[in-house]
Amino acid sequence: MKRVRRYYYFVMVEPTFQGPTGTPAAVAKGAVDPEVAAVKLLLKLLEKAFKTSRTYGPNNPVAQKFFHEFYTDLTARLETLDRLTFVVQRSELYFQNEVVYQTESQTENLAFKLYVDGIRELSLHKGITQNDLASFLEALWGDYDSPTSDDDIVTRLWEKNLSAVTFVTAEEIMKSSDTTDVLTPQDSGIFDRPVASLREISSAERARQANEGAAGTGQRSRFQSSLAGYEVSPQELEKLAKEIETESARDDTTYILDMLTVILACEKSNTLLASLVDVFGEILETLAKHGTWPMINHVEGLLKEALELCPHLPEEHKKKLSGLFDRLGRPEQIKVIEAVLNKDPNVKTEGLLAFLLQLKPQTVPALCTLLANLESEEHRTIVCEALCTLAKDSPEPLVRGLSDRRPRYVRNLISIIGRLKNPRFAEPLEKLVQHPDSQIRNEVIRMLGALSPSGNGSKLIAFLTDAEEAVRLSALKTLTTGQYTAPFSAWSPIITHKQFMDRSVAEKRMTFQAMRQTAGEEAVPYWHELVTQWLWTDRKNKQSVGALAAEALGKVGTPTAIAALEAGQKRMNRAVRNACTTALAALAKQKRAKG
User: Fold this and answer.
1) Which residue among 4, 298, 429, 519 sits deepest, i.e. has the most Cβ atoms within 10 Å of its Cβ?
2) Tally of domains in the chain
3) 500 vs 263 pLDDT, higher one
4) CA dihedral 329, 330, 332, 336 (to 10 degrees)
């Protein structure tokens, strides 16, 4: 049956409830009364009892616990006060001119529910029984699936006729001959009289109206009707309209899931519980087939909450519930997710990352396969994000995937490895030095620099034989910006290769700079040879390399390097001789500056 609620909207100016001194109670300040503080805690227990009872049913152990705690505290309080009387405002309850209850949510706000149904004062009397309290709570929150679901709180309380629960309505206030007296403190007027039931007030009011006769017809208030009037701001009216619209368009799937969770919380039969667990498993698999990720996360939250709030569940069923979500991480289920994502590149991915992060690390191999097969860049990015978290403690599938022939997949794995920042990955990355894709080789160099910014630089020197200049320059840049060391023997195959002489001046300069930083003094004999060699053949290249060698020797600046520069200064080639002279002059200038 579709839920229907009645809302009555009348705009009126209602007098502000006044404290004994005439100051509005809403702003009354002073020392905290222990009695008021105790009542605040009491109402918090009432709110807890309501929320758990409405979500998991009144028979749920947790709901029963909160109910008994509330009843125990309430009866203890009534032993000293005889009755607790609350003045009802739109979003607050007042006790002894102090706010004792207030919450922003109107859908679960006790004060708002009482206010919109016309109740302006509520009293709980000494002698209230557990049955009375249960009936009061039932009337308060209502059963919207019952035939009387359209009744408001006043009607439901009137039908139950609870002697220990009394109230005053806005209708009675508006019909009273002296509104000001009614709204003054509770020691006068109608608030001072015990109200046994709404029926008594209604009878007394009808008798008063009969005595007044027709003479008072012209002075009747426009609120003299069977409906209670209360002030509603435009913002509140708009919010209520939206709530009605949302309720009318309620999502059936969410409703069914919530109902199943309530059944799970209340059911005692092992057979039915086993069937219910299977139903939840089928629901999760169906949602995965349709890519409804937010709903999957919602179900996962419901199951976790059910496990926490249902201590009566047998361990067998608890394990099954805990394992339901793990079933979605099986390879066959991940394959279903792959089909959903590849079927439509524009499929909604809201909630997908949250869903993947709920999976266990054991699903990393299946997620790697998913990453390799996905076609959309957006989808691959989401899976990479999940693997950065799940693969921290189980990176082996990532390492195995580096040997895959699909460049796009390998690049994704390298980016994940870089974010994990685990030096153990440096060794498997070094094996990609001969990978056919230049982008991958470039990315490997960058990751090696991030994972191992110091130490032996031989692994980076190996990239200097690459056919792509961009790859070689990337390796040289990493060597010059890090704290690496390498023996001259590691450099020798690079600089003695015939192709080295054909490389650009900029690359040769960077090579000598990297040699100076990693090999240091070991490279001086090689540069000495370059500045003193004969230039009978390939004169242009040898002259260029000699000048670069003189520049490198000047940066080394050791006695051996200076001796090599002095020897080069005596050569006949003008370009090399000038380069050596310039380097020596720079060294002399540095020495004078220090000295």
Assistant:
1) 429
2) 5
3) 500
4) -10
